[in-house]
Amino acid sequence: MSDTKEPAQLTHSQAMRYSRHIMLSGFDLEKQELLLSKKVLLIGVGGLGCAAAQYIVASGVAGITLVDDDIVDESNLQRQILHNESNIGENKCTSAKRKLAMLNSSTNITVIERRLDTSALDKIIKNHHIVVDCCDNLATRNQLNLACLKANKPLVSGAAIRMEGQIFSMQPAKHSACYGCLSRHFGEQQLSCSEAGVLSPLVGVIGAMQALETLKILVDFGQTLSNKLMLFDAMSMQWQTLNLNRSAKCQTCSVFDLK
Questions:
Q1: Of 52, 98, 125, 258, which is the most buried if we count CB atoms within 10 A?
Q2: Residue 6 contacts by C-beta under 8 Å, 6 or more apart in sequence?
């Protein structure tokens, strides 16, 4: 997707709605107008996705595409706050879209109620400015990582289980470390929330941080987590940030010339 199109100027109503953004030093009208032209691809509308999507939509992006083939069940309601009891049995994308549309009717919300194969994912990423990874399995994370590298699009990945969370972002245009560079060193446990449990506010914390990182990358505001991994221990209420440079031994990004 090209970024050459000039952002539309804010209307008076929009300036009032997003006034708390505009007040921020270094953000002001210019970056809010830029944000109103951006499209986000969000994969997974569970705990992380529900939290991240709300702040992304409320902040005024032009569009968001939600991808999830799962349906709402009763055990989701403990943490997936876009869904309620009346949505049990409904696809998560459809349930989330209804709530998000009430939050900001100006954002175009598209839903894809199926898993995307490699070909479909490669195609759809081209029509978005950034991908937000809110999935719950390593295979999908690796798929998204590779697709974003091929499309030269940034990726914001989050994970939460038990009392532990992490946030990581990749910006291929900045030659940053990819998810393969991360998993090469730390790996990933093949456990789900249904097997290990998770305290409900933890997914809200990590999802909100994903939204924050997404907005900052979209409008180039402040420092981002490029080449960094942020870890959160909810039991001790401590954050830790680790440096992570791109690895020449990474079997994923080492094959891409991103200079």
A1: 52
A2: none
